[in-house]
Amino acid sequence: IDVFLARSLLEKLYLFQYPIRPASMTYDDVTHLSAKIKPKQQKVELEMAIDTLNPNYCRSKGEQIALNVDGTCTDETSTYSSKLMDKQTFCSSQAASNVSRYAAAVYKKGELHLTPLHGILQLRPSFTYLDKADAKHREREAANEGGDSSQDEAEDDVKQITVRFSRPETEQARQRRVQSYEFLQKRQAEEHWVHLHYYGLKDSRSEHERQYLYSQGHGLAENTELIKSPSEYLMMLMPPSIEEENDKPVAPSNVLSMAQLRTLPLADQIKILMKNVKVMPFANLMSLLGSGTDSTAVLRCIQQVAMLVQGNWVVKSDVLYPKDTSSPHSGVPAEVLCRGRDFVMWKFTQDRWVVRKEVAAVTKLCPEDVKDFLEHMSVARINKGWEFMLPYDEDFVKKHPDIVQRQHMLWMGIQAKLEKVYNLLKEHLTPKKQEAQSAHPLLVSGEQRVNMAKAKVKQNYGQLEKEFKKQKAEMKSNDTSAKMDVSNIRIKEEPVSDEEPMDTSAYEGMNNGIVNGLHAEEDSTDSLNGHLPGGCIDRVAQELKAFVSSTFKKQFVLTLSELKRLFNLHLASLPPGHTLFSGISDKMLQDMVLDTGCKQILVPFPPQTAASPDELKVYALWEAGDTYDQHRQVLLEIFTKNYRVRRNVIQNQLSQECGEDLNKQEVDRVLKVSSYSIVGLIQLTHECLM
Questions:
Q1: I want to staple 65 with a disulfide (CB 3.0 to 4.6 A). Which of 85, 191, 282, 556 is the partner?
Q2: Tens digits of residue pLDDT in 216-233
Q3: What's a single GO CC term here (predicted)?
């Protein structure tokens, strides 16, 4: 099909969309009584007749509406001269702001002729005649009231008038007035209507104008726009939006393009990064800026847009809240927001924890603004408060003491300003005791915690040994019998050892107040409160061995933490004064596990695991005396190489080690029989990864 572009009605052709018409109204030549247009606004008003003789027309309602609008008198200003609602007014509104992609098409003799539309207008009923009726009603009421009042009453109605001189209008006030809704409505009302003449569908003038919908010449010279390649033709039909191209930001805002970012000056790069990230260690900032960036220049630029808090850089408040802006939550000006956020930053220089209520009480800001401040640089912890989101950067503090000293002086100046503005009390200014050691991070690893505990034991060992010897002498002088009331134990011996004490804090409420986790030296048979006979020690070893053997025959694989938990539950079920209450250390428990034929499985857990040292010690029963010992040992060997294993790897390894070509059903049977060990290891690795 040949396509032609008609230009005769260019910028003159409109599409009218009429509403669904009632049965008593037809859009034909007779119904259009008058039409007028405002060209600049593209606003059209049509007056159309209603067929009052139609059987669907309600004559009583038509008369009532005409009476309400015009009243009883009939003159030139009457809306309905026939005393019937015999016409209706339609007013237009723009259906689309951009109609350049729409065209009217006419198909004739295998040719398609397109004419671009200049506007698409939707016509809706207008009820301005009701406003006219209300105005006439008010005029009649005012006339009636004026006729009843006397001349003397009219003279008494004199009111005092105050004359005021308007101030000169500033440029900002003029711009606000020009952009106001009232001014725009006034300008639209000032545009004059242009009255139009309506030609019906079958009128000769209409038929003549309709010929302009066809292209006047079929030559190539008049249709060169359509002699294009397919891509050029599509570009003509759907040209790129110029507004979208102009609205592209110079620098990325929410989603950063590193390629575009690195084309900017160094100062702008740092400002954009800090504005988006808000809190960043200096090492991370250097990695984002790329290799070859001078660290001295970065330090010079970062101090212009960020402040040092606990060795990390936090974006300045005036960068996030520029001048002449306000809070989206409360409308508070930027100056007040910067002051409140500076107070939060300063609090984090004194302590790792900040309480939201305290900040709100001092700054007097709304909860949403305070929450925004805290979310910029901290993380909420349940029942604790808000903790600074990054650990203390000790490396940066050691490498750049001059920057740290300069930032400290800046914070001293900010503190002085905050004291004047908020009238801070001593409790707000004095840092907490634990933060006096600001050079050390609050969060410590499990290994550091163990070393701290060992150092504390060494420090208190001398005093504990003296107390132990003193009590031992008292017990010997009183000729204490071998049977003792274990519930009276007050002191325990804690010799220097590489082993950790058994943690039984979760089970202190059990055992009727009896404390477990007591230490005993390898080469000594002294119990906590005196010398136990050799037979008693043998009974303790027998009881402990029986417990370990029965436990591992049931579960095959256990961590030290889980074994200690089961042992405490076992103690809770024993009567008071049982031999196991004499004190079982972690070392005794682990030695007994190895003596019963178990082995320690060195599972290679990932380094980022949050599990405790006891949870990382895995023990398994190596030989249970059944037919699946060899298969179970192969499975345990597999888990010593990787903490996460696929099923096909297990099947291949079992086939190689056992010399059998196991199919899927046989592997399922092996896994089912050895399910305790496999499930135990899988649960263990899952807990460690959590």
A1: 85
A2: 766 545 555 557 788 888
A3: RNA polymerase III complex
